[in-house]
């Protein structure tokens, strides 16, 4: 029988919360700081539009390819040391990426995606273990930190390049934040008491791919993440095609991501009031769709309203998708497995979004076509939101077999 999880002390909770915020701040600037600088990078390196598209797609693809390694690393190193390794890899890759040599630029970008994929997949299980009764709200706080980091990366990319005199230094500067998170995590990471030898039975093998609910959560994660990474990778470029300067396009992206802070924290709180998360998911996906249409099709005088709607929608969508991993898992072990699957397969699916947009632009597609593709992806996400948002959860039965059942949440 598994011991009943206990809530941490107030001091431990505050410390863990601070660490989650600091780690979360690191998982988006590496992505969002790149897109405002794409024109400068292209001019300096001579990359083709397709090459630039590959540069924005590669880290998202690596999120998916490397996220499944997280449960394997956690099992062998422990989740705490595995996260330390991911932060170390992130710091090194950020330095390597700040290079005009194309092979090193792409190698560093690959490392950035791998590090973020591993770290992002480890965190839901850590949150579920450290705060089992409030994991969904903790996920909202962590997602809020992700959004803040994304806003900082998007908004400071151009100013840092101008201030430091070089896009290389602008990209490399985010290494400092990664090193700070690594040091703080090593000093303050939780140290759970190991179980006594022989006190726990051998854990049964978990095969989540046999369960439709796991695939529904995965498809939801992938489709809404695809929209997010299209925004990080291409929104400034698309806005510049509408006649905005690179600086204003970057600030519009930063403003939209900053607005995500509101819905990233509020959406999980609203969702936990009900056992059915479908209405909340449909609302945030509707806001996302409206934001895209206003930014890319409406008069430019409405661009900031569009950015606000997009931010409210995407912040809520990502936060709820992560919360689904927690709510659809009966314990921290299942949360870790579902996180690896949802973020592994999901981010691999998400990588197709930036690639498709890059190909469309390479082929001369206009903003109307791009907008139609974005609306289609949002519709795809809505279908799986209706499936994953139902009152279901993956649990172990008395024989240790994973089953899907309805559950009652305690208020």
TrEMBL record:
Cited InterPro entries: MFS, MFS_Cyanate_Porter, MFS_trans_sf
Transmembrane annotation, as ranges: 12-31, 51-70, 82-98, 104-127, 139-161, 167-185, 213-237, 249-271, 280-298, 304-327, 339-361, 367-388
Gene3D superfamilies reported for this sequence: MFS general substrate transporter like domains
Coiled-coil intervals, chain numbering: none
Matching SUPFAM superfamilies: MFS general substrate transporter
Keywords from the named record: Membrane, Transmembrane, Transmembrane helix
Single GO MF descriptor: transmembrane transporter activity
Keyword Transmembrane in annotation: yes
Protein's recorded name: MFS transporter
Origin species: Bisbaumannia pacifica
